[in-house]
Amino acid sequence: MLSIKSISKAYAGRTLFSDASLQINRRDRIGVVGPNGAGKSTLFSIILRETSPDSGEIALEKGSCVGFLPQESAPTGNETVLELACSFSTEFLIAARRLGALGQAPDGEPAAEDYDAFENAGGGQLIAKARQILSGLGFKESDFERLARELSGGWIMRAHLARLLVQEPDLLMLDEPTNHLDLHSLLWLQNYLQNYPGAILLISHDREFLNRLVRHIVELENARLTRYTGDYERYLVQREANEAQWLAAYENQQKEIDRLMRFVDRFRAKNTKATQAQSKLKQIERMEKIEAPHISRKRVHFSFPQPMRSGQRIIRLDKVSKSYGDLEVYNSLDLEIEKGKHIVLVGPNGAGKSTLLKILAGVLEFNGGERELGHNVQSGYFAQHRTEVLQSNRTVLEEMLDTSAQVTEESVRTLLGCFLFSEDDVFKKVGVLSGGEKSRLAMAKLLLNPPNFLLLDEPTTHLDMASIDTLIDALSQYSGTLVFISHDVHFIRKIAKHVIHVEGGRLRHYPGPYQYYLDKTGQDSGRSTEASLENGEPQKNAPLVKREDAKARKRREAEERQALSKKRKTKQILIDRLEAKITELEVRQTEITTLLEQPDTYANGGQAQALNRELMELNEDLEQHNLEWSQAVDALNAIG
Question: What is the Cα–Cα distance from 295 to 544, expressed in whole angstroms?
Fold first, then answer.
């Protein structure tokens, strides 16, 4: 359906793509991954014809339709939410308005062509579909007739996503579609897209979303597009295997080149071996050189100061009530949180999760009841507004160094690198940073000196996968108490040890990890046996022999590595001994040659005869040792 052939693209001397190709077929499910700045969004822009490649071509099958949801700021006009969801066709929208089919009074007198345009596009069934999709994405019935422009940017993006799902383009392109969704809406979208009739090409930093949805991963890194079959977890395994094979091939070729050059260096000056030495040089020149592999960046680990100790009870809410005007969110709410808990708040959109988090953090007033912090408890709340406490006239590095924590500039720059601030980025003024960059900076600064009661609202937004892994590492070793909201299921699985479900002003506790909550509520976890075993969790009906086989395989592989290491060591000892003996023989060869060049040697005929005889034997000995040395080097290279 879409063919990308040998495209190249460079910006300001930096190559994003070089001879890159990709084929997208109908019903394909492809996730695009790669480090920040690798060119993923540029690839989308080229496909959408917004940017032209420097070379190569893009071919779209005739009659095919492409739909795109950007990561941020899709436009809106005077449409209601329902009208925006149906605005994939101007003719249909005008006809539906004139017919009064969108919940409002008819807009003028409908003409015959309006009835045709309405029915040909799907009519009432299509509007019913739009309502269903909007509901799945978290909109209430009362939102359908609201003007979309009155909503926040995140809700406008949801409405545009609904528009694309109603339209059903042949190729659906999504750039970070989960950023503006809560957990329930994300799970709904995940399930909906599994039955999508067209092809899907998406950029996402949500591992579980990719694992549930895609069947291929396209990695964009080092100006190349590499396609892998399977979900994100299988891609990681395949990539590691490919890198290992590439590295082994490169190292073996370098060893071979080194062996040949050692022969050349040893014999190029000797008349009897000069021809062979020249032949070895030509052999090196004829080789198709293997490029040094670009090993994918390893996760950066860091340690941050552990918070001060607190009492056993962290916080208590006693009969707390909270209302927004006539809307009552909580009435006589009781909650007590103890030291060391890692709690995730889940529940439908609008249930009051963020309100509860703000009440716990002490940043939102409530109508009645009491909030009591425990002994020696210091709370820290992370949300978008936290970026307002950053000083706009400071550089990123200066802002990070303004902390009571005992840190060095090197450790601070390492942490900033984890959150996508590298090289000259650390000298940018805070005031010129984007909202996402400020959010990442605030998160990094929070981790430098965390309080003992940490409250996080969607902490993974604006982070790439490596940064999310860094955050997971940090929070996994955090000894304080944590309450958070997230739509990133992978993050929830790694961090949460306790789940609180929020709905209807009531809290229901699930004293276990996220999988325990899913099992108790009968929801689909969507995880594979491999993922469960990797996390050390039991999987229902999973045969134990798999775990035993894995242990046996690891033990066998360790034994094989030890055996290979022993062989390599033995061969290297032999090579060292041969080289020492060859050097000894070559020194004696030089001595004899020097003596035979002196006239005094021939005054005693017996001496000259003996030296010539020794030289002949020595030359034979040298030839044999050089042959053994070459064979030993070949054997060592064959071991790998």
Answer: 34
Q: How many CB atoms lie within 10 A of CB 306?
A: 12
d(CA 254, CA 289): 9
Q: Give the closest residue to 440 by CA, choosing from 455, 423, 418, 424.
A: 418
Smallest CA-to-CA distance from 518 within 368, 346, 379 is with 346
- Strands 453-457, 14-24: parallel, antiparallel or unpaired by DSSP? unpaired
List the beta bridge partners of residue 69. Answer: 174
The 10s digit of each residue's pLDDT in 494-519 is 999 999 999 989 999 999 999 999 98
Instruction: Classify residue 179 by burial, with Cβ atoms within 10 Å: 0-12, 13-18, 19+.
Output: buried
How far is 328 from 330, CA to CA, in rounded Å?
6
Q: Cα(442)–Cα(472) distance, rounded to whole angstroms?
A: 16
Instruction: Give pTM, 2 decimals.
Output: 0.69
Q: Are 400 and 412 in contact (CB under 8 A)?
A: yes
Beta bridge partners of residue 323, listed in sequence order: 328
605-639 and 232-267 are packed helices; what angle lies between their axes, rounded to 10 degrees? Answer: 170
Exposed, middle or buried, 553 (CB in 10 Å: 0-12/13-18/19+)?
A: exposed
484 forms beta bridges with 344, 456
Q: Which residues contact 553 (CB under 8 A, 6 or more apart)?
A: none
Structure-token match 């070793």, residue found: 477
Helix (H, G, I), strand (E, B) or coil at 60: strand
Q: How far apart are CA 221 and CA 38, in angstroms?
A: 6
CB-CB contact of 20 with 58 (8 Å): no
Q: What is the pLDDT of residues 174-183, one digit of tens each?
A: 998 988 888 8
Cα 377 to the center of its chain, rounded Å? 35
